[in-house]
Every structure is written in structure tokens, then in C-alpha cells.
Amino acid sequence: MRRFILTGTPGAGKTSILMGLERLGHQVVREAATDVVARRQARGEDEPWTRASFIDDIVAEQVQRQAAAGTPTARVQVFDRSPVCTHALARHLGLPVPPALSAELERITAENVYDRRVFFIRNLGFCEPTAARRISFQDALEFEKVHERSYHELGYELIDVPADHVDRRIATVHQTISRLTA
Hints:
Elements: E1 2-8, H1 14-23, E2 27-29, H2 33-42, H3 53-68, E3 76-80, H4 83-93, H5 99-110, E4 117-121, H6 137-153, E5 157-161, H7 166-181
Parallel strand pairs: 1-3, 1-4, 2-3, 4-5
Helix pairs in contact: 1-7, 3-4, 4-5, 4-6
């Protein structure tokens, strides 16, 4: 099983690319943080990312999704974000890296859970806010830099996917995965 990660700036189009890859037959795993935010907001927490426990909840969701994602016939899985992204999020928010996240980072490294080549989806020149994404474009660019640092520090190689029409970005990622898994 080869597990690839899509990462990058909030609002860069990762979800659109992921859906396109799914249409092409790839098994995909959706982002955990957005669902954690939605659940907490449904319980009345307006800004759940301000609490340190937010990072623990994301890690728990990521671990659960990664464990549940395996199907016997799938050769490739594509993940919208990973625990390395959660590490970048903690840094960006000024929150401590909790023990559960440190342990998960150690586990995914020791077990080679994800391919060391990561698709870095570049920003589109804007960032549209949503209920879960309340970040300015300028802050999103800073967050992009934090992501790059986290992945590099943890030994990953970034495959740059520049801003372009979504269909071309999907084709780029699909063709690269096909080449890497041939």
C-alpha cells in the first residue's frame, strides 16, 4: 500500500484535487481538521482552534481515518493532509505539540506510513473564508511556509503542484502517482 499526502495552503484546492483523483479511481481520505472544527462548532464552540485540545482531536481523527482507510484491493491511497500538517498547525497557532502528536509523528516515521514524497499544492492567489477556514490570505501564506518547514524538518520531499486549472493539477498528481507506483 502506497499512501500519498496532499498538503499546502488553506484554500489551495486540495479537496477539489482529491475529488478528481477519486473520480480517477484512487482511494482517498478526507481532511480531519475540517470535520473536527464542524463538530465542535455544532456543539457551540465558535473558534475551536483556540484550545490546545483541538490538536489532540485532530490527531485522534487522523489516526482513526488512516487505520480505517485500508482496503485489500487498493494499491494507492491519497490523504488530504497528515499529522505533519497538524504539527504545522500547532506551530502556526502557537499551541504546544502535544504528546499524542509527537507519538504519531514518531510512529508514521518508524513505520513508513506515508510516502516520503508529498504533493505540495500551491496557493491560488486568494483564500476564501468558510465556517471552518477563517484565515486571511496573508496568514495563509505564512501557514504555507510553516507547512514547508515542518515537512522538510521531518525528512519529506515536496513535489510542487503550482497554481493552474484544477483539471491540469489533477492530471499532474495522477500522472506522478502512476509514475511513482509503476
